[in-house]
Specification:
alpha+beta, five-stranded mixed sheet, 48% helix, 196 residues, 8 strands, single chain
Length: 196
């Protein structure tokens, strides 16, 4: 009995220690993120970097979810052209996260202030360079986007995730989002279930 109690007490102490390290790491990530990255509205000069982030992000996140032929058809040149062509229409609807030192764009979010059904606005997309995931950049962009929309009196914001994109769903749930709706999205020649 005495050995059993010592073992249980040791397990509890180890778990407390692990949780303390996790909390310290989260705090350090926030400090580093706040000091190293800046969120601002996009410029025409950002479009090529943003196009690379989208193509790489889709090919990374949607492997095994979206048809591979469609994913392989995505390319930097076409995506850059689409972004440049639509820049004037969306320039006030896209935030980028930029490394303050290198001026590299590491992620971006796009939003809409238009009412759609029961929702007064939408987080249309949020992409991070795959190699920079887990550094707090997505959380920073999400929070800045929501802060901007709330500043415009938008309080019922929707975002959509493919049902099988479980990593993104977990990311948004950890930020306080809750599933409210479902819809079918057509991507390429196929249809996919999305959660709102």
């Amino acid at each position: 009995d005495e050995n059993k109690n010592i073992a249980i007490q040791t397990d509890i102490e180890i778990n407390r220690l692990i949780n303390s390290f996790i909390l310290m790491n989260d705090s350090l990530q926030k400090i580093v993120t706040e000091n190293e990255y800046e969120v601002r509205f996009n410029t025409i000069d950002d479009q090529e970097q943003m196009a690379h982030i989208k193509v790489d992000g889709w090919q990374d996140a949607y492997q095994g979810i979206i048809d591979k032929d469609y994913l392989n058809s995505l390319n930097y040149q076409d995506q850059t052209k689409r972004y440049i062509d639509s820049f004037e229409k969306y320039k006030d609807k896209v935030l980028v996260a930029e490394n303050k030192n290198t001026k590299e764009i590491l992620g971006y979010s796009c939003f809409s202030e238009e009412k759609k059904g029961n929702y007064d606005s939408e987080l249309v997309s949020l992409y991070i360079k795959p190699e920079y995931k887990g550094r707090g950049i997505g959380t920073l962009l999400f929070n800045e986007t929501i802060k901007y929309l709330r500043g415009k009196n938008k309080n019922n914001i929707i975002l959509w995730c493919l049902k099988d994109n479980t990593k993104s769903i977990k990311f948004y749930e950890n930020l306080g989002c809750e599933k409210q709706a479902e819809k079918i999205a057509k991507i390429g020649n196929d249809e996919y279930l999305e959660y709102g």
